[in-house]
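Entry 12.
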Amino acid sequence: MNPELHRLIQSIQPADEDAMRAARARQGQLTKPPGALGALEDLSVRLAGAFGTPTPHPQGVTVIVAAGDHGVVSEGVSAFPPEVTPAMVANFLADTPAGPGGAAVNALARTLGAQVLVADVGVNADLPAHPRLHALKIRRGTRNLRAEAAMTREETEAAILAGARLAAQAMEGGADVLIPGEMGIGNTTPAAALTARLLNVPARAVTGRGTGVTDDTLERKVRVIEAALARGGSDPADPLGVLADLGGLEIAFMLGVMLQAAGARCVIILDGFVEGSAALVGVALQPHLRAYLFPAGECAEVGHAAQLAHLGLTPMFHLGLRLGEGTGGVLAAPLLLGAAATLREMQTFAEAGVPGAP
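Predicted 3D structure (tokens):
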């Protein structure tokens, strides 16, 4: 393993149990009936553990959208052609009357005042230079995972470290809540393959319709993933090997974002299924990563619930999202910020002088 990557993985510390105990005790004393804030109370306690303080104060939200293409698209597993990937990158960067970016993630991020960073880590096209594009291409798309390993281990580690470095740059700019997002036609296929291998479940159990494929295309997608798994090119005991064998450049990049954020005691909002596949690899590499992962919603992909169950994480909402880009993560950010504010800004009964304090 690359020494820089090894240090990054080892830098992630467990949740701060003392901060969590103090946060839980404070929640029980705030000016409300016990449990009245429902799941926000549990979120606030987890945030205390991640940030290492009973009164966490997250302030900077940044979405990092990684774009990459997939050789497996040649197998006919997607409803859209690969040319959509570079076109969507251009949309993320476009100047519009509302502001930078014309995609859903841009519109949603503007409502929150969140920053959106866009990285080309593996688009199968030569993208024009743009002041808001981070040109970090490792290679032009992955290989066809049905027939061979999608990436070499060196390419995989390079993509992870590229994500870590961009996350570090975002954190230097004030981000302490990071939302990994992705754009890559066909990327639910590697995400399903990763999930099937790491969870040791049949491909069919975790393979969904992605962008909305027909029944025939879904069946073809399942068969392609089954063939990829049957190659026996990786072992779950070697998570990086599984990622190289069955993953994607943007998936590896998002893993790097997660590792860097967790190592700095910042939190990660998980958007959906593709992000979940990166998280599975990350937690297999370093179980402490789980403490810093906050899933937004359970998306429409059939395998997402299995990922969350394996990670022991509860989604914040169920909106049937299946877009990617980090859109669900942006929608969840105000919930996390609000949960932290209850610990930090609400008064206890004693502080407020309210009679009948518990």
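Annotation: The beta strands are 61-68, 95-96, 99-100, 115-122, 133-135, 177-183, 267-270, 293-295. Residues 153-172 form the longest helix (20 residues).
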